[in-house]
Design brief:
The complex is a heterodimer of chains A (282) and B (316). Chain A has 15 helices and no strands. Chain B is mostly helical and 316 residues long. Chain B has one domain: Orthogonal Bundle (MetI-like fold), CATH 1.10.3720. Classes of the chains: A mainly alpha (282), B mainly alpha (316). Chains A and B meet through α1, α2, α5, α6 and α7 of A and α1, α4, α5, α6 and α8 of B. Chain A: This is Carbohydrate ABC transporter membrane protein 2 (CUT1 family).
Chain lengths: 282, 316
């Protein structure tokens, strides 16, 4: 283990380390802690310029219920769910198939198609912006959740294919060969042999894509406009315009918007990290 | 590979063989055709929404077009305009600053990973909490940091006040604004690099470390000669995601300054958006031309990434 385990060092160093970690953590999360404290302050604190002193009262419940019951926030949250979940399903389904094709079969175009997916995944969004917006307008899907979902599925397929293909490459190929010898059709090999083994990869990708899409802002601004279709990342700016200078509400709103991916991360941590490292760092 | 539990890997023999009669042609060509059937939907989507639009953007950049009316072919006029456009050079300069400073996330992430790679009680929770900033959307990170920088009540100026300095209006000062936004971006990016290195450190060969310790190698020399070479895969991924993150920087700028003050915090990705899709006008052609330049910069890195991957594939 590197660096030297702390329990093999002198007592003094151990105590120093143990007390340093929480301090470092608080410093690291300071901007976030500040917002969390803002979100439970009463309005009056801001009027009296009591920004960093002890809150004059705890208004957490009032502030958060305002966010949930008196603003468009629930609507934006629902939009985000309705955009994120279909995208996750679509991108994972498509990439299970592309990953299977590129991971199992040997044919000449294989590596070039794979690189096309990888390269497309690295492209800056701006080069796609004008044509994709135009296409979405032509399809009559501008300012709809469907328009956003279709684009997200297509774009995320690049990253997902990279991930799935590498995962499938690492599976024991003998299983497939054995099935072929038995005369099992290729389609059945996919459904009954490969797919069951892909569960961890599917879980990792699902969590990761959920976070990516939930946090997307650029495409939300480019392809949607109003409260009927915008996700929460774009909605938070209109929310903030509505409550200009009401820092306690803006803070509460931001925390609500940030929470779902955070919850996802804490619930599925192991899968999340496996996904982030592209399965390459084991 | 450990023996697979029966539930996840049904023995092939248990699967009913398909089709009653052997179908000749399909039988013979099944293995050649199946991959294309599996690829078809993915390639179709990807081509329509990603590959073809790249070329369409190249095409649009040769036109003068407001996005609605008739497009007028103007040849390279958009690129010529860019050549004389000061705002373009400001954006380009800021892109370079972003690229260079964003790379600090890699040593930063490594440092935190080394700090946290211990086995004391509760370390798992500490690791997750350190990773926290990456999970939050950049929009929220931007909001959080613009309050952190606020000249009247921001925590930064409160702390500067303790040392008798400030107040600095980071986001309102053209000298500081880009650095202020990059600092906000480094926060989640460092967390990302940290997790890559933490996973990498798990896989470092313990025998080599022990051998180094027996040779009385100093910790720093060990890090340089034994640990870092083994962390190469993690470093490569950290490099890829950091470069891409730097060139994609849009959310933070849009939320924190909207390019201001006086356009001093623009980068190409934001300037392109501003030209093509904001109250400044709908100049799709000029926007596409800026995007093409950004794409060409990115292409240098994409080529390098793919080349590295290709070498590794060949090595297998």
């Amino acid at each position: 283990m590197f660096p030297t385990p702390i329990d093999k060092q002198p007592r003094g160093a151990q105590i120093a380390y143990q007390s340093l970690i929480p301090v470092a953590l608080i410093l690291w999360l300071l901007p976030l802690i500040a917002v969390a404290i803002f979100s439970i302050r009463p309005d009056a604190d801001f009027a009296n310029a009591n920004y960093w002193g002890w809150p004059s009262s705890f208004e957490g419940v009032t502030n958060y219920s305002k966010v949930f019951f008196e603003s468009d926030m629930p609507r934006y949250l629902l939009n985000s769910v309705l955009i994120t979940v279909p995208t996750v399903i679509g991108a994972v389904a498509l990439s299970c198939m592309t990953g299977f094709a590129l991971g199992i079969y040997k044919f000449r175009a294989n590596i070039w198609i794979f690189f096309l997916f990888v390269a497309g995944n690295f492209v800056p969004f701006q080069i796609l912006m004008v044509p994709v917006r135009d296409l979405t307008l032509d399809l009559g899907l501008y300012n709809t959740k469907t328009g956003l979902v279709l684009f997200h599925i297509a774009f995320q397929t690049g990253f997902c294919t990279l991930f799935m293909r590498n995962f499938i490459r690492a599976l024991p190929f003998e299983l497939i060969e054995a099935a072929r010898v038995e005369g099992v059709s290729e389609w059945r090999i996919f459904v009954f042999v490969v797919l069951p083994l892909m569960k961890p990869a599917i879980a990792a990708l699902a969590v990761l894509i959920f976070t990516f899409i939930w946090n997307d802002y650029f495409w939300a601004v480019v392809l949607t406009q109003g409260a009927e279709s915008q996700p929460v990342t774009a909605g938070i700016t209109s929310f903030n315009a509505q409550y200009r200078a009401a820092y306690h509400l803006m803070s509460a709103g931001s925390i609500v918007a940030a929470l779902p991916p955070v919850a996802m991360f804490f619930l599925m941590q192991r899968h999340f990290i496996a996904g982030l490292t592209l399965g390459a760092v084991k | 590979m450990a023996p697979l539990p029966p539930s996840t890997a049904p023995r092939p023999a248990a699967i009913p063989a398909s089709g009653p009669a052997p179908r000749g042609w399909w039988r013979r060509n099944q293995i050649a055709i199946t991959p294309w059937l599996f690829l078809a939907p993915g390639i179709l989507f990807f081509a329509i929404y990603v590959l073809i639009p790249v070329f369409q953007s190249f095409n649009v950049s040769l036109y003068d077009w407001d996005g609605l009316g008739e497009a007028e072919y103007v040849g390279l006029a958009n690129y010529e305009e860019m050549y004389w456009d000061d705002a373009f050079y400001t954006s380009l300069r800021n892109n370079v600053i972003w690229l260079v400073l964003y790379l600090l996330a890699i040593p930063g992430g490594l440092a935190i990973a080394l700090f946290l790679n211990q086995t004391v009680t509760g370390i798992r929770i500490y690791k997750s909490l350190f990773f926290f900033p990456f999970v939050i959307s950049q929009v929220v990170v931007g909001l959080v940091f613009s309050w952190f920088y606020d000249p009247s009540f921001g925590l930064l100026n409160v702390m500067l006040g303790w040392f008798g300095a400030g107040p600095i209006n980071v986001l309102g000062d053209e000298r500081w604004v880009t650095y202020g936004i990059i600092a906000a971006g480094l926060w989640p990016q460092t967390a990302y690099c940290m997790i890559l290195y933490l996973t990498g450190l798990n896989a470092v060969d313990p025998e080599q470390i022990e051998a180094g310790r027996l040779d009385n190698a100093k910790e720093f020399r060990m890090l340089w000669h034994i640990i870092l070479p083994q962390l190469r895969p993690a470093t490569f991924i950290a490099f890829v995601v950091t470069i891409i993150g730097a060139l994609r920087s849009f959310d933070l700028i849009s939320i924190m300054t909207a390019g201001g003050p006086f356009g001093e915090s623009r980068v190409l990705s934001f300037y392109m958006f501003e030209v093509a899709l904001s109250e400044y006008g709908f100049r799709m052609g000029y926007g596409a031309a800026i995007a093409v330049v950004l794409f060409l910069i990115m292409l240098v890195f994409i080529t390098y990434f793919l080349w590295s991957m290709y070498r590794e594939e060949r090595g297998r």
